Amino acid sequence: MGRTRPGARGFVLALLLALPLSAFALSTSTTRALNMRTGPDRFFEVMTVLPARTSVRVTGCISNWRWCEVVTRRHRGWVDSHYLQHSVRGRVPVINDRRSQRPAG
Questions:
Q1: Residue 21 included in any domain
Q2: pLDDT tens-digit profile of 39-48?
Q3: What pTM did the predictor assign?
């Protein structure tokens, strides 16, 4: 997702998950080799390692969007959402988070 703030990343993921799949061609992939775990925390057992650019389907997220349950062809498990990239029709969504543009004050 590029360099967006963590709050913006969660907002985009919530928006993308809320829209019907027929509205757009959504794809999600890993940005690097990534541990897939049996639960939503780094203390859960690693069940497999997903290579970089592995296509996954996000089924849901918890803990302020930090951990997402994903499905691949062979596995269902949990990954750290910081290492997922979402694209719509091959283009990464651009976030305009106006809150980050407010002057300090």
A1: yes
A2: 999 999 999 9
A3: 0.62
